[in-house]
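Pipeline run #58 for the internal structure catalog. This entry was flagged by the ingest filter as a single-chain record with no existing model, so it goes straight to prediction. Upstream metadata was stripped on purpose; only the residue string is passed forward. Reviewer on rotation: M.T. Logging verbosity set to normal.
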Amino acid sequence: MSTRDRSKKQKSHALVGSWTNGDEYETNVEYIVDRVGNSFTVRAIDRFDSEEGLVYDVHYDAKASSLSFGVRWKSTGRFINARLVATSENRVSYTYTYTETQMWFRKGTEPVSTSKPSPISARRRPKKNTI
């Protein structure tokens, strides 16, 4: 088999290519998957501002035809664990978990909320015993 034929065969893997979300309002991230030998590489690019995420721990599972990897976005500090599963020639299923940023306060210094407590937190409050 010639080098050109081997290269073409490697490129024809179902996960190789540029992947974007079909909903234009959902995300601007693009994953670019390439294959070198038996290894895969992934680039993560935010098309809104061209930031490139740091991709790490790329792992291919041949049985599931899935590619798992982590991404760290320097601008936000957010970490994402992602998994692409080939579902057809031009589609992948994308599953992800990510970190979230919240503002926490030292107990007793949190801002006073004027809104009503959520039904969930209201259910957790002990009932007052009245006679």
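catalog note: The longest strand covers residues 78-88.
catalog note: Helices lie at 3-11, 119-124.
status: ready for reviewer M.T.
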